[in-house]
Amino acid sequence: MEDKEDIDGAIDLIDSYRSHSLTQKLSYIESEIRGEGRLEIKDICKGLSIGSDLLGAARTVKKLSAEIDVIIHSVGILCSLENVLHAEEKVEYVSLGAGNTGKKFDLETDQRIAEYKFIDWRGGAETIRQNGIFKDFYELAEYNSHKKKYLYLNSIETPLKFFNGGRALTSVLSRRPVILENIRKKYGSSIERVRDYYQIHKDNVELVDIRQYLES
Hints:
By secondary structure, the protein is an alpha/beta fold. The chain folds into two domains: about 5-65, no CATH class; about 70-215, no CATH class. It contains ten helices and five strands, in the order αααααβββαβααααβ. The chain has a five-stranded mixed beta sheet with strand order 1-2-3-4-5, covered by helices on one side. It starts with a helix and ends in a 7-residue tail after the last strand. The model has no long low-confidence stretch (mean pLDDT about 95).
């Protein structure tokens, strides 16, 4: 683990290199080295403090940032529980890590099961993210339980457009053929698009904007 002093120093180096706009900074450097040779380029880099220290700083920050999604996921769940849980509700398990943790869902209590997705939706073509939340919705919908089912999302406007939209299930589940086959076996060939499946289960799985439970 890097020392805090090393991390702070790395961030300062990167921030200095970025300046106000990384795009503008790179454009400036590109124009400066055009037509120059190796000695002149060396002087330019030295003058801009571009060297092994900056490269090492970038690698340090990249290593730390690789874990940021796990931090957001785990802290987001933990911070939400105080407001999500009912007065007498008890947690049976919570899954805070990334990947296959051996637990079926992110949260199960004596009253609910839930999945969390802390995604900042941009409203454009987000097929991979859409594919992921459809899988979560499907697994919640098909899970045999009397408990209430929730899919907590970082805003629901864009996800609702997806769930009510016309993307073909063959596209959404192109890398999950087992789920596609299971849907066809259970519901028949008439269930072809995301909205077809969502209409069947929209009252079984509640989409919830998690931000309301994270406000301080």
